[in-house]
Each structure stands twice: as structure tokens, then as C-alpha cells.
Specification:
Elements (H helix, E strand, L loop, with lengths): L1 H8 L7 E5 L7 H5 L1 H14 L8 E6 H6 L5 H11 L4 E7 L5 H16 L7 H12 L5 E5 L1
Parallel strand pairs: 1-4, 2-3
Helix pairs in contact: 3-5, 6-7
């Protein structure tokens, strides 16, 4: 099902900004020992290191993630990101992933990226290939954070 979905969305116009964190290899023991702070830092980093590719954005965060990862509230991200990179975020809110197709798209893309980093899986290269068209867009990036 995931392969069919990724084939279908490959023709649509969107770009991907992702951060891959191999938790055991994190240099920062502070972030390694505090998962909530690590997730907040990752989101903030993705939104402040955009190289001008994101402006006046409306951002949706999966409501389940805010509970699971104890993410900071929307006001925190808007303030911190816009202080560092003025004009990046216009609006930030949570959304129910079961009702929001963009969150569902993001979940599928994240799952494919995750799978592409599993060399023990026979299809790991397939998932990266399925995202290649979108990842080759100059606005896209997969940042390997250590």
C-alpha cells in the first residue's frame, strides 16, 4: 500500500524537509536524555535552517505528536522561529492526523524516509527512489543530525 501511495503522490508538487536523528549516535547527551527537548529542537531547527525556502508558512503539527512528544505549544514555535528567521511562520496549529490529508502525507513520507535508512531491509533503496523526484527539488532536504 505504501509503495502505491508514494508512486501516486510522486507526480504532485510538494517538497520535503526532514531531519533524521539516530538517537544513540547523538553527540549531545542533553538531547539524548531528554526526548521532548530533542523533538522540540528538531522542529525548531527544520524551521530556522530553511535557506529562504519557507516564508509565511501555515504549519500543522499532528496533535498526537504534541501529546506523545510533549512538544512546545504553537506560540513557542512561532515566537522562536520568527525571532530567528522573521516571516517564516504565519500560523501554526495542531491537526488530527485521521482527518488531515497533509498530515497523512507527511506520515507516509516520514515512514518512507525512515525505511530508506534501514539497510537491513531489502527494499530500503526503493523507498528513497520513490521520493527521489521530490527530494531532488532544491527546496527539499533530508538533514542527518548528529
Amino acid at each position: 500500500m505504501r509503495v502505491g501511495f508514494l508512486n501516486a503522490i510522486g507526480q504532485h508538487q510538494f517538497f520535503i524537509r526532514a531531519i533524521v536523528i539516530e538517537k544513540p549516535a547523538l553527540v549531545s547527551t542533553h538531547l539524548r536524555e531528554r526526548p521532548a527537548e530533542m523533538h522540540n529542537y528538531a522542529i525548531r531547527s527544520l524551521l530556522t535552517h530553511t535557506h529562504g525556502t519557507i516564508a509565511d508558512a501555515k504549519i500543522k503539527i499532528d496533535g498526537n505528536d504534541t501529546k506523545t512528544f510533549r512538544l512546545q505549544n504553537a506560540a513557542y514555535f512561532r515566537r522562536v522561529v520568527n525571532d530567528e528567521c522573521p516571516g517564516t511562520i504565519r500560523e501554526i496549529s495542531t491537526a488530527d492526523s485521521s482527518k488531515n490529508v497533509m498530515i497523512q502525507l507527511a506520515d507516509m513520507v516520514v515512514g518512507a524516509i525512515h525505511r530508506s535508512y534501514k539497510p537491513d531491509k531489502n527494499d530500503c533503496r526503493l523507498y528513497r527512489a520513490l521520493l527521489a523526484k521530490r527530494l531532488n527539488d532544491r527546496r527539499s532536504s533530508v538533514w542527518e543530525f548528529k
